[in-house]
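User: tokens in, sequence out, please.
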């Protein structure tokens, strides 16, 4: 749960789902994180909760047109670079959006993938050239740190018993725009070790409060060498599963492997997070020899209706079994997905359908349910 060099994030807004889908698809091989929204209001909400560098918005939308949306973004998020996407008949509004200074570029529909990409690269370069207001970011990070807490999301065994919890970074401060924002803010200000110390202490507190079961902690390869993250909870290492999240290609692979070995010797278990997503490929399993594999949500999404996904999940489970590795299916949102991953042989289940991350800090110890039936009290 720490720093990572962030991929630039682009938000595509169009009321036509086919347009957002096609544009997103054309960018899938680029080192760009692409979010989409089909409603202007939803887009504004995403800007509040996520860190977004560039917004590309359609002009002609029912509830709020693109120029108006971008004008609002200009006020609330001045650093976000704005691009307008228009049909030929909206040229007038496009021209005024650019002339009034609010919009970086406009693109004509239908937009060629190569033009979209070059425009986005220019927008991202422009975004990166803007000076960061470090004083403001520092205040926001301080606020977020002061109200930092860890949500816990249950992870279930095949029999429906809770076997553990994944801890997820949260803060109650208004400046908090999500875990990625916080990790990046700390990295930008060279304060990652401070954030890691705070997280380490919270993990220890949560381990005490959660009383029993495994505790899954997200760790970025960059944080592996910083002892201060692990020291506070080293005394409960046997309960801790370190989820290695590789959003970025790992730089020094040998170093990562050596560090993982050391942590394993200290009693920590190791999981490869998001297996099957961009960077967490099968090589991660070879390099890290994990105890646990967490299947990426994209493999789980719609697994009940995709024969390919069913076969892939079943094959991974079967290979994992041979290797003595346990498999978690995460991001289960529907009963049918749950049934399909159980049929494919996963060991553990996680997702909104079974239990959402907790909404507020955990204050008191949470005890496991009483295993013996409580005798009914005699009738009055
Ligand atoms: O990358 P990682 O696997 O650590 O991602 C965990 C994130 O996934 C958390 O932010 C958590 O809130 C979210 N999450 C957990 N369960 C679900 C789910 O069922 N569906 C979706 N969409 N997200 C989920
Ligand atoms: Mn995770």
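Assistant: Sequence out:
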């Amino acid at each position: 749960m720490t720093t990572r060099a962030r991929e630039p994030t682009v938000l595509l807004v169009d009321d036509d789902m086919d347009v957002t889908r096609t544009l997103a698809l054309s960018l899938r091989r680029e080192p760009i994180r692409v979010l989409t929204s089909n409603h202007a209001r939803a887009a504004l909400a995403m800007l509040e909760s996520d860190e977004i560098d560039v917004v590309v918005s359609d002009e002609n939308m029912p509830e709020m047109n693109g120029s108006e949306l971008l004008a609002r973004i200009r006020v609330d998020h001045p650093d976000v670079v704005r691009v307008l996407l228009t049909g030929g008949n909206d040229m007038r509004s496009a021209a005024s959006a650019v002339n009034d200074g609010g919009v970086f570029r406009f693109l004509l529909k239908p937009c060629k993938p190569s033009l979209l990409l070059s425009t986005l690269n220019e927008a991202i370069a422009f975004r990166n050239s803007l000076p960061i207001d470090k004083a403001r970011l520092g205040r926001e990070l301080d606020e977020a740190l002061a109200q930092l807490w860890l949500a816990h999301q249950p992870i279930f065994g095949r029999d429906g018993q809770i076997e553990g919890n994944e801890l997820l970074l949260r803060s109650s401060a208004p400046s908090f725009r999500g875990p990625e924002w916080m990790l990046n803010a700390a990295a930008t200000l060279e304060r990652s070790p401070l954030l890691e110390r705070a997280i380490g202490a919270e993990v220890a507190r949560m381990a005490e409060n959660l009383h029993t079961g495994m505790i899954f902690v997200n760790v970025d390869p960059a944080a592996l060498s910083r002892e201060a993250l692990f020291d506070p909870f080293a005394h409960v290492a046997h309960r801790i599963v370190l989820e290695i999240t590789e959003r970025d290609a790992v730089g020094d692979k040998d170093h990562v492997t050596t560090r993982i070995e050391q942590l394993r010797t200290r009693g920590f278990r190791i999981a490869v997070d998001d297996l099957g997503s961009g960077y967490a490929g099968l090589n991660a399993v070879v390099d890290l020899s994990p105890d646990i594999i967490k299947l990426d949500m994209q493999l789980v999404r719609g697994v009940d209706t995709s024969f390919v996904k069913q076969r892939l999940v079943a094959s991974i489970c079967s290979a994992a079994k041979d290797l003595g590795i346990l498999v978690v299916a995460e991001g289960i949102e529907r009963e049918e997905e749950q049934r399909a991953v159980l049929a494919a042989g996963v060991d553990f289940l996680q997702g909104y359908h079974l239990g959402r991350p907790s909404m507020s800090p955990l204050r008191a110890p949470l005890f496991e349910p009483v295993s013996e039936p409580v005798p009914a009290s005699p009738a009055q």
